[in-house]
Design a protein that fits this description.
The chain has a domain of 160 residues: Thiolase/Chalcone synthase (Peroxisomal Thiolase, Chain A, domain 1, 3-Layer(aba) Sandwich). It is 33% helix and 22% strand. It contains twelve helices and 14 strands. The radius of gyration is 20 Å and the shape is globular. The two termini are 23 Å apart.
């Protein structure tokens, strides 16, 4: 059921927190608790009763304390225990947000319930170190796994580091470091546009998080943390990470912490909850894919082609495109394969610049996509991104 007709998102029925580079202001917060409490504060701020939620999808990819209960625990905290809400935990790496939103949308389509909520939160900071029993190994000594770095540095199926999968694609299409640096600089300049006029664009969807700074003291985190300024000269001076490669540390994303949330409901309920009932946000279609082994950056293209085909539109019909591109070659490849202008995509920046908390990354991009198209007067928008294991996802929305 890729094509949908009954699932809507209320205008302003979503938020994203700022994203903070790992080991920053959100580093010591349990992502489950912080995500749920931020969502609860957001509902109160919007004067929406959270008990409208019939079912909650909780997206998380990095283990937190009490992960076993994460979905039901988060659901209870979102509504302050005022209603017993069933929930499901979802982990699809970098495309988790999109999948949570789509799962809610399919249940709206089927009439299973009236209102779903997609809540996504992650903390790359202070990732867990797991010890696994190995009774048949030498001396029965345990095996260990660092959740973050070990998985960044080796896909157990394909055998590559994530950056090596990007380099595989770059080599295939003949991308140069100079091209990568030029597109990276454009993404940074686009991000600066989101900060113009006292962050006017970011304030359209961003909601602050409240964190502890002492036993009896809290602070609001209202701004992205850890953005590194880019210049053409600075990018040119950065060496490639992989020998013979085209990606420097400047042309790839950085791990981050953050959360986001989306109400997904019927057309009638969306109008009721909308900040402007004249603006409709319809979830049209969803695409998924898996590229060949070790070519993760290629995966968003077939996913996008599927979503566009099912929606009955082409690239020429799109008002805006937002992508999760952990490596700049993602956008370069997609633009070449789909006939897009790589400098037109990702207005107001994307995850390559402001960071990648994993679970909520696509959600922030979708919120930005919606707001950009509203500003443009409506039309179709495409979100697309890759995820660990050479997979990809895409979603088409219509704003009118």
């Amino acid at each position: 059921m890729s094509l949908l007709s009954k699932a809507y998102i209320p205008f302003k029925g979503y938020y994203s927190s700022p994203f903070c580079r790992w080991q920053g202001s959100l580093a010591n917060e349990n992502a489950i608790v912080l995500g749920a409490k931020t969502a609860n504060r957001w509902f109160k701020n919007r004067k929406i009763d959270p008990t409208i939620i019939d079912y909650l999808y909780y997206g998380v990819t990095i283990a937190q304390h009490h992960l076993f209960y994460s979905h039901t625990w988060a659901a209870a905290m979102v509504v302050d225990g005022a209603k017993n809400i069933s929930a499901l935990m979802v982990n699809q790496a970098c495309t988790t947000s999109t999948t949570c939103i789509y799962l809610a949308a399919t249940n709206i389509e089927l009439g299973a319930y009236q209102t779903g909520y997609a809540l996504m939160s992650d903390r790359c900071s202070n990732g867990p170190h797991t010890v696994w029993p190995n009774p048949l190994g030498p001396g029965g000594e345990v095996e260990s796994e660092n959740w973050m770095m070990d998985n960044f540095n080796r896909d157990p199926w394909a055998g590559f580091k994530m950056i090596q999968t990007a380099e595989n694609v770059a080599k295939n299409i003949g991308t140069t470091k100079e091209e990568c640096d030029a597109v990276t600089l454009r993404r940074y300049q686009q991000y600066l546009d989101s900060l113009a006029n006292d962050r006017a664009f970011q304030k359209r969807y961003m909601f602050p998080v409240e964190v502890r700074v002492g036993r009896n003291e809290t602070k609001l985190v209202e701004l992205d943390e850890g953005i590194i300024p880019c210049t053409a000269e600075g990018l040119a001076k950065l060496a490639s990470v992989e020998p013979g490669g085209v990606h420097s540390y400047g042309s790839q994303t950085h791990p981050a912490d953050g959360n986001c949330g989306f109400i997904v409901t019927t057309r009638e309920k969306a109008k009721e909850l909308s900040a402007d009932p004249k603006i409709e946000i319809q979830i049209i279609s969803y695409g998924f894919s898996r590229a060949k082994k070790g070519y993760m950056a290629e995966a968003p293209v077939p996913a996008s082609e599927m979503a566009l085909r099912d929606a009955g539109i082409t690239v020429k019909d799109l008002k805006a495109v937002k992508t999760h591109s952990p490596f700049v070659v993602n956008d370069i490849y997609m633009s070449k394969m789909m006939g897009m202008d790589v400098y037109w995509m990702n207005n107001y920046g994307n995850s390559m610049i402001y960071g990648h908390p994993q679970g909520p990354t696509a959600g922030r991009l979708i919120a930005e996509l919606i707001e950009e198209i509203v500003m443009l007067g409506g039309g179709y928008g495409l979100w697309a991104g890759c995820a660990a294991g050479d997979t990809g996802a895409a979603m088409v929305l219509k704003i009118g």
